[in-house]
Amino acid sequence: MIALRLVHLIEHHSDELSETLTHRLLSDQRTCGLRKVPAAELHQRCHDVYRHLSDWMLAKTEREIQEVYGGLGARRASQRVPLADLTWALMLTKENLFDFLVRQGVHGSAENVYGELELLRSLDQFFDRAIYHATAGYERAQTLAMA
Amino acid sequence: MISLRLVRLIETEAANLSDSLLKKFYSSAHTQGFRKIPEHELRERCLEIYSHLSDWLLHKSSADVEHRFQSIGELRARQGVPLGDVIWGILLTKEHLWSFLERQGFLMGPVELHGELELLRLMDHFFDRGVYSTTVGYERSRTLPRVTSTSDEGRRRGEARPSPGIPSALL
């Protein structure tokens, strides 16, 4: 319940979050491969996950996550973005959320710590699946391209 | 201040945790490629990470973690294990710890909860870095010739096995 409050806070600030994330992705050495991706596309992807975070974490099925993130992996493979860059980008997407909570003064407060635990667990499960399916989609695309 | 109580508990239960994790590897549809890895090697990797978790989380530098996981990524690429399987294996290793900690129950006081949150964040950072570095090592190795076993790999590189006292990378 408390975690849901934090998720709605994130969704409410999705514009600000996707701006900061896009900036991080384009300036981080480990994601420089993402400069091959059109800026508008990158921004849209960031915004989509933050705006609908509760959907992603609570409502989407494994199959839906596989479809979207497998497709993302395949697309980045076709754009010749290194897989490691994509992987780091997904991790930064999660990390950006916790930095936001710190800035909001939510992180570590006594009344929110249990909610943060719940949030961390749910976020982890979602992003782990996203990373796995993006990796699998990327590899499938590469295999097809080499065939 | 992270929850050292929980870290010590994990280290004490490392053997049991490793055994149950191995069962998950062999039954998961996403880690079928692990059948290419000698079982003793897999068990050793799991055991060393769980047994020395405090080292990995508190004392090893980011560079140490990255270097070890890159080496593992390179090795798995040469063994022909699909990268998706390797990544899922690392994520399953983390998930296995989470499940164990949940079964132990979290203390309800805010001070203890804060320590547990810090521990989980450290674990998260550690495994995230592991996944990323494994991918880097794996991608780098794609063009190198495959080996059929770690003994072949050892002979090829002329390396000694890691000392038991030094934690080696996970998978």
Quick rundown:
With 147 residues, chain A is mainly alpha-helical.
Salient structural properties:
heterodimer; A: 147 residues; mainly alpha; Globin-like; 7 helices; 0% strand; B: 171 residues; 72% helix; disordered C terminus
Helix content of chain A: over 70%
> Main beta sheet of chain B, described?
none
Provide the β-strand percentage band of chain A. Answer: under 5%
- The CATH superfamily of chain B appears as Globins
Radius of gyration of chain B: 16 Å
Describe what this molecule looks like in 3D.
- The complex is a heterodimer of chains A (147) and B (171).
- Chain A has 147 residues and is mostly helical.
- Chain A has a single domain, classed as Histidine kinase N-terminal domain (Globin-like).
- In chain A, helix 2 crosses helix 6.
- The radius of gyration of chain A is 15 Å and the shape is globular.
- The model of chain A has no long low-confidence stretch (mean pLDDT 90).
- With 171 residues, chain B is mostly helical.
- Chain B has a single domain, classed as Globins (Globin-like, Orthogonal Bundle).
- Chain B has 8 helices and no strands.
- In chain B, helix 2 crosses helix 3 and helix 2 crosses helix 6.
- At the A-B interface, helix 6 and helix 7 of A face helix 6 and helix 7 of B.
